[in-house]
Fold this sequence. Notes:
It contains five helices and no strands. It is mainly alpha-helical. Helix 2 (22-33) crosses helix 4. The radius of gyration is 11 Å and the shape is globular.
Amino acid sequence: MAEDEPPQTRLEQVLRQRHWTVREFLRQYQDVAGEKLSERQAYRWIAGNLRKLPYPHAQAALERLFNEPVTRLLGPDR
């Protein structure tokens, strides 16, 4: 995540607002989901590089973690 560039997704925007690093995001995700998320996958979500939405269990974890619909989180920033 480059701080000098505008966020590519709402997820990136929220991470910046919370001052979370990718490592902190991975830690928080694991606490909520009960499973690890790869750093590579986290960067894909943050950048919006998706062909389709994550699996339902991952969507539910993201929605619990950020209290926003996953379609909004993985879409353009506000």
